[in-house]
Amino acid sequence: MSQTVSPSSPGPSAVSPSKPQAKAARGTSIFPTARVARIIKADRDVDICSKEATFLISVATEIFLKRLTDEAYTNAKLDKRKNVLYKDLSRAVQQNEYLEFLKDAIPTPVALSTALEARQQKSQQRQLEEEMILEGTLQQDDEDEQEEEEEEEEEEDEDEDEDEDEQEQEQEQEQEQEQEDAAEEEATDDHADQDRAEEQDVPADDHSTRAVRVKTSSKKSAPKKSKSRSKFTDSQDDVQMLNDTDQDDQ
């Protein structure tokens, strides 16, 4: 169903379906191509748009507007009216899911007092959200500072534990070194005692061997007399030789 905007109406609030819509010639659009191209170029995300794409966008816009006006005219007919009003368009937007993106552009009409109250509530809600965000930010900052302090304390505790471990290791190493030194000193003392004992034992052996040699030499050099005389002489000689060797050693 086609309808046109009535030129006698004061604004876009009334549409008259009495006059048939002028159909565009085949391969053309009712929208000026140059103006559509300027609107497309206004988008910074679009660098180049060909003529064919511009034409297709114009045709798609025509189809979209036709469906929107058809929905609005249906609402006007339900109210037993022939003119399409703003509330018919807003009802069409609210009733159709594919027109939800127009809710902000074509909102439901409300009284001025209601609109002011809604605006005030919206501003209060926005202010409350900002305060909550600010409080949350401050609280987050406090939590971050507390976490940083806890991390610093943990690092300090870890450093102290490491220092204590190092001190304990150093003490253990010192104790082990002292034990090793003491063991070496004991071993050295034992070797020294053994050397001294050996030094003391060697002269005694030499002394005994000398005594034996003296006995044998005295027996060989003494003249053969009577048995009793020879035994007595040998004993005297042995005692004399032992005394001489003791004096020599001293």
TrEMBL record:
Residues 31-93 form the Transcription factor CBF/NF-Y/archaeal histone domain. Keywords: Nucleus. The keyword Cytoplasm does not apply. Pfam families: CBFD_NFYB_HMF. Its main location: nucleus. Residues 140-188 have a biased composition (Acidic residues). Residues 1-27, 134-250 are annotated as: Disordered. Residues 189-209 have a biased composition (Basic and acidic residues). One of its GO terms (cellular component) is nucleus. This is Transcription factor CBF/NF-Y/archaeal histone domain-containing protein.
